[in-house]
Each structure stands twice: as C-alpha cells, then as structure tokens.
Amino acid sequence: MDRRPNKLIPADLPPVPGLDALDAAVVGTGEIPADAEAVGVGVHSDGDVPADIGFDRAALDDAGFTAATGTTLVVPRVEAPDLVLIGLGPRAEAGIGELRDAAAGFVRAASRRARLGLRLDDLGDVPAAGAVRALAEGALLARYRYTALNGSSTHIPLAALTIQVPGGEGSGSAVADAFLTARPAVVARDLANTPPGHLTAVNMGEIAVDLGARFGFEVELFDKQALIDLGCGGLLGVNQGSTEEPRMIRLSYTPEGAATGHLGLVGKGIMYDSGGISLKPSDPMHLLMKMDMGGAAAVLGAFTALRDSGVTAQVTGWLMCTDNMPSGTAYKLGDVLTARGGTTVEVKNTDAEGRLVMMDAIVLANEAGVDAIVDIATLTGAALVSLGPATAPVFGNDQHMVDAVRDAAAVAGESVWQLPLERKYRPQLDSTIADISNLGGPFAGATTAALFLAHFVGDTPWAHLDIAGTMQTEKDDSWRTAGATGFGARTLLETARAFEGHTQAPLAEARG
Q1: Under CATH, domain 207-332+351-425+445-500 is a member of which superfamily?
Q2: Taking Cα atoms as reference points, which of 512, 357, 341, 361 lies closest to residue 426?
Q3: Helix or strand holding residue 346 (H, E)
C-alpha cells in the first residue's frame, strides 16, 4: 500500500488496527474456566442476592453497591480470580439494553485482566440467545481502545470471555453475531479517531479497497479527474482549498441469488473540517473535526458485515471524502457550485460543506435506481443543541424508511428521535442567483440542512441521520468508549439486514 511517511499506518500494520484486537478475542458460553482472571456475577437491585458471592444485601448496601444497571463492585481475592459484582437493576426492568450495559461495566471494572468469566443466574424474560449476544456485544465494544499512536498505552485487550447464563449452552451463533455487530463500530471508531494528518481521502480509499477484499464487497475509487468528468461540483468545490485530492468511494455489495431490494447509503466524509473561509473558532469542537468523516466511516463499517450477516438486499454506498481547508484557492461565500445533475447552489457559508458533498452522491444514488436512500452525516451543531450527545435526530420523506431506521437503531442500542421535515422552512434556502442556497436561517438548522438534502432526494424513499452530537463521547459511557463512538454503523447494518424494497408514499409534510 502506498502511504506517505507521516501516515498513521505503516505497511506492516493492517489498515484498521482495532480489528486485530476484536478478532483475537475468544468468546464462548458454558462453565467459567479455572484460568479466568476475573469473574463477574450479576446482581439485581431487588430480590435475593446470589448465595455464593459471600455478601448479603445489607453488606452490599454498606459497601455502597446499589446494583443499579452497569454499576460494579470489585472484590480482589488471594489465590482466586477477582470477583466483580455487576449491577443489573430491578428484575422487572432487565432487558437487552441493560444486559449490554452490564457487560460493559464488567469489562471496564476488570480492565487489568485479559481472561474473564461472566455469570448471570436470572435472565428474567430475555431469551438466552439474546442475552448472550447482548453480553458479548457490550464486552467487545466496551473493551475497545484507540492505541495506534500511543506507545506508552497500558491498555490490555480482551483475550477471552466465557458467558455463563441459564440455557446459554450452544449459543455459538449468538456469539458470532455479536462479533459481526461489533465489527462495524470498531471500524468506524478507528477511522474517526485517526488524526487527519494520518488519514486523508486518498488513504480512506486505500483502506476501503483492503476491507472490501477481506469482507466481500467491491470498491471503486473516483479521483479528481473522474469527479470532474461526473460533474460532482459539490465535492470538487469543497476540495478547492486543499492540497489533498478528493475521493468518491463507491462500495457495492451484491448478495448471492435474487436481491430483496436495492438500498443506497450515503456518508459524509470530511476528513478534516476547518470551516474553510468561514473558519471555525479554535475550540474543543474544532479539535474534534477529525471526526467529521464519521458518516462515511459508519457506512464503510457497516459494509464489513453485510456478507457475513447474510444481508439479502443489494447495497451500494457512496463515501464523499475531502477535507475543507482555507487557502487562496478555497471556495468562497457567494460562489455558485453546480451539483451532479445541474442544480446550482449559492454558497452562503463554507462551513455548511457536508450537504454540498452529499448532494452529488444523492443524485448518483437516484441515477443508480436505488429503492431507498439512507444518508448519515456529522451535519449540524443544531443536532447537538436539539437532542444532546446521546440521541441523533432522524428525518425523512417516507415514514416506512424512518421507522426502519428507528427499529434498526433500537436493535443496535443507538438512540435516535424523529424530527419533522418542516416544509415551511424550505423558503429559507431560496437564492436570488441560483437554484438553492446551502444555508437557512438562524433556527432549526438540523431541519433546514435536511431540507437541503431532500431537494436532491426527490420522491425516493429516504431517511437522514444527523450524528454531529453522537459522534463522540468525552468519557466512557457504557459500551461507548471515550473518543469516537462509531455511532450509526451498527444501525446501518441492522437497516440493511431488514431491508426490502418498497413503494410507500412519502410523508405528507415532505411533499412540496
């Protein structure tokens, strides 16, 4: 692989180092082995305490352990594995999400131990296979760390985990599924955590090629001249200020046999967003703009699990990759860009660049005849203001697709909330010199950004995820590790798993 000397991943390392740690972990079910270095035991906040842990409820209360979901109490032992009590919350409220959180709390509490055992005596109404998958997912995702550039890291990867639950024997398929659903998030996290000087649009294309060969999807790279030939004026315009070439990366997954539909995925891939001429202030959010390619990372991550998950739909992805830099050649306020297909766009703010690169991809997706489009982007600060760092807004012109994304997010444990695609705000995007402008008014910024994308979507069933608020967490949060969260990658996988082409009419409020 041709990489510059200052790039993160030299030729003797894989393009996504986190996959090594994931693939090296051995997870199984059954009796906890004697070589386990720490054993976690689930404790509900009500009812009986497991008799063999050596503590009654009063002793746990004295120790400050309430058994709230995800809380832990570590009991070091001599000549025996550490005992970690894991809070499961009230019995009546225990579900898949609580089990995922509990496993995450356990592996974090036992972070200095590589070989772990996890025992739950009571699953409530959760089926054994679902419990095993959730526990394995929580453990694999919570143990992730980005250490590629930290030579003094003391992080200990998870080497082995044995899950012991009632009826869990023989749940090997559930364990395998947990690895598949963890993989997209690990890929997306690694890419988004990588500093921009080590991951350019060109590098992103190289990595996509490597992953495609490994995980069964085709990759086509479009360089600057190819983008000129295609008339992708949005991606080319944003790239004008950069010394790095842009790349459009098209991913294609075709299942064996007849496909159940054709799903298009579009990801924003701004490798670093300075804001361009509309320069961002030098604040903590600016520091996080290496993650402005989180949408493209989520799409690429999802593709790594399509084949192995047995997805029956045809899936095509468009990753629109460039950085957005200020220079003497950068696009300017007042410029007019021409999108693929001929729509002219007046630039009123060069920091509203994500929608500009995505408009080209959405046109191409429609030209490809997809049955539906899901796009994902770290698009607006308004998304963070609206719903905070834990929940992503979802918009759409088709309730069936919006519901499909919401259902998929619920399976993945990623919180989304539908916001209205309010057509009354569409005139804010009007331009006196072009077909449309790239910026609305001072309010409802997430909505006006979605309305801009809707202009290019047309009547194709569509859902839009704005992950600007959920792209990262400042500190460990359950199975979401500090840094890039990989939010959306697992939701996209679950969307593709369930996808079947449909022709449902658009939402009334999205017509216009």
Answers
A1: Zn peptidases (3.40.630.10)
A2: 512
A3: strand 344-346
Report helix, strand or coil for 439. Answer: coil
Instruction: Let me know: does 160 contact 133? Beta carbons within 8 Å.
Output: no
Task: Note the pLDDT of residue 15.
Answer: 67
CA-wise closest residue to 86 among 54, 122, 118: 118
Residue 105 φ then ψ, to 5°: -60, -40
pLDDT tens by residue, 469-501 = 999 999 999 999 999 999 999 999 999 999 987
Which entry of 3, 280, 307, 332 is annotated as an active-site residue?
280
The residue extents of the domains of the chain are 18-166, 207-332+351-425+445-500
Between the CA of residue 389 and those of 179, 207, 414, what are the distances in Å? 26, 28, 11
Evaluate whether 500 touches 260 at the Cβ level (below 8 Å): yes
**Cα–Cα nearest to 228, from 248, 200, 203:** 248
Amino acid code (one letter) for 509: E
Token readout for 175 is: 């364990």
Residue of 119, 355, 426, 497 marked catalytic: 355
* Portion of the chain with pLDDT greater than 90, in percent: 85
Task: Answer for the pair 265, 184: CB distance below 8 angstroms, yes or no.
Answer: no
Q: Is the pLDDT of residue 6 over 80?
A: no
**18-166 maps to CATH 3.40.220.10:** yes
What pairs with residue 463 in β-bridges?
A: 374, 396
Rounded to two decimals, the pTM is 0.94
End-to-end CA, the chain: 48
| 475 among known catalytic residues | no
290 is catalytic: no
Q: Name the burial class of residue 339, with classes exposed (0-12), middle (13-18) and buried (19+) by CB atoms within 10 angstroms of its CB.
A: buried
Contact call for residues 326 and 271 (beta carbons, < 8 A)? no
| DSSP labels, 485-508 | --TTHHHHHHHHHH-----PPPPG
Instruction: For 150-200, write each residue's pLDDT tens digit.
Output: 888 899 999 999 999 999 888 889 999 999 999 999 999 999 999 998 999
Q: Encoding tokens for residue 389?
A: 């760092």
